[in-house]
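cron nightly-structures :: item 1 of 1
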Amino acid sequence: MTSTGGRAGKHIVQVYASRARTAVDRPARWLVGHEAVRLAPGATETVNVTVPARAFAHWDEDTWAYEPGEFTLHVGSTAEGLPASVPVRLR
């Protein structure tokens, strides 16, 4: 992330997950992680966002369960502004 403004600022990097084909009733996208970053004017920093395994789980009657297969992680500033994505596979 790079601060392009003339003042120091704070930004929240958000990570959402989605799944194209699923047998589970879930939202189209759901928030799985976020990280705040403070930058000086013109500064650049790599932002690491931890996504816990539990973010891919769903409640199945009386326990947490995992649906194996491919999910997509979307990264951006808002739920509507997600310019980067990467596939992940659960086994």
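cron nightly-structures :: done
The first strand starts at residue 9 and ends at 18.
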